[in-house]
Write a structure and sequence with these properties.
Blueprint lengths: L16 E13 L6 E9 L5 E7 L3 H4 L8 E5 L2 E3 L13 E3 L5 E4 L31 E11 L12 E7 L4 E7 H6 L2 H7 L6 E12 L2 E14 L4 H9 L8 E3 L13 H5 L3 H4 L7 E3 L6 E5 L2 E4 L3
Parallel strand pairs: 3-6, 8-13, 10-12
Antiparallel strand pairs: 1-2, 1-4, 2-3, 4-7, 5-6, 8-9, 8-11, 9-10, 11-12, 14-15, 15-16
């Protein structure tokens, strides 16, 4: 039986056979992780079309050991379901559902030039329309410029996190990795690698928000990342960012600050303004950081010793 492309699947027939690579696999569990609802996955075919798939909880034991991330399979006798209503990993009108009759056969040796990655990486400019959207998760490519260490939970957050700063060559964005994904991101290894080459990463399965005017991507349970992989989108970012320094910086997210002195309004009212501003006679300002003084001229502060 000849294999059908993913784009040609429809409910007009249930006798489909496809050849696909399983690009990602993850478990869908209850919030307390005690109940496994399903095994979910994403597949990509030879024309780079992508689709989600699901193994229902009562079929997981039948297929778990047969389904390996990265392998190519022919899949026969499956159902087509509607996509999830929210947080779809890919934008496709169908998803594959395994049944008790589904046939799964690994293709060995794998065909040459079969796509490795299931993604739909978009330009930064497109993501403004997806801010706070809940229908489809987003994939993004960027040159990593800075990365933070792991921060403990704060505010309403229940998990630790790591921030990754990226650029497409002109605009900038922030990627937040939560929990285990923050731990798995090899910041030290990427910093070492950036001494030789730019580190350009494809992040998949992200939500999109906004923070201080920047696009802000946040990881989900299906997020993965791929570093300097041979895809056109990474090559394009590499070309657009040639003018930028690519040595990755470790950013601690804080700045040195002088501890404030707590004073009452009554105490402040007794202060001599010149004392507060370190002003000496004749409008000369004393620098608190060095032994030199300076004067004001035309709204600029000039060093008196120059």
């Amino acid at each position: 039986m000849e294999c059908t492309l993913l784009k040609d699947l429809s409910r007009n027939s249930y006798r489909w056979k496809i050849m696909v690579r399983v690009a990602r696999i993850w478990e869908f569990r209850s919030p307390d992780q005690s109940t496994l609802f399903s095994l979910e996955f994403i597949v990509v075919d030879q024309q780079k079309s992508v689709m989600e798939g699901v193994v229902p909880g009562n079929r997981v034991d039948q297929f778990r050991d047969k389904l390996k991330e990265g392998s190519i399979y022919t899949i026969d006798k499956f159902d087509l379901y509607d996509p999830k209503k929210t947080y779809r990993s890919v934008d496709n009108p169908f998803r594959i559902c395994f049944t008790m009759r589904t046939l799964l056969a690994e293709v060995v040796p794998p065909p040459e030039n079969f796509p490795m990655f299931a993604h739909n990486a978009l330009p930064f400019s497109v993501f403004t329309d997806r801010i706070n959207g809940k229908i489809v998760l987003s994939d993004v490519v960027g040159l990593v410029t800075k990365v933070t260490g792991i921060s403990p939970p704060s505010g309403k957050a229940k998990s630790h996190k790591r921030l990754v700063y990226i650029t497409d060559g002109s605009d900038h964005a922030i990627v937040t990795l939560w929990g285990e994904q923050a731990d798995l991101f090899d910041a030290d290894g990427l910093m070492e690698a950036s001494a030789q080459d730019p580190v350009i990463v494809l992040f998949v399965g992200m939500t999109v928000g906004q923070y201080s005017g920047l696009l802000a991507f946040k990881s989900t349970s299906v997020t993965r990342w791929y570093v300097n992989v041979p895809i056109p989108e990474i090559a394009a970012v590499h070309e657009r960012s040639k003018h930028l320094p690519y040595r990755l910086e470790l950013h601690d997210g804080s700045q040195d600050r002088t501890e404030p002195i707590v004073s009452s309004i009554a105490e402040i009212s007794t202060f001599e303004p010149n004392d507060i501003m370190n002003v000496l006679e004749d409008g000369v300002y004393k620098c608190p950081q060095c032994p030199y003084s300076c004067s004001s001229a035309e709204a600029q502060v000039l060093c008196a010793s120059s």
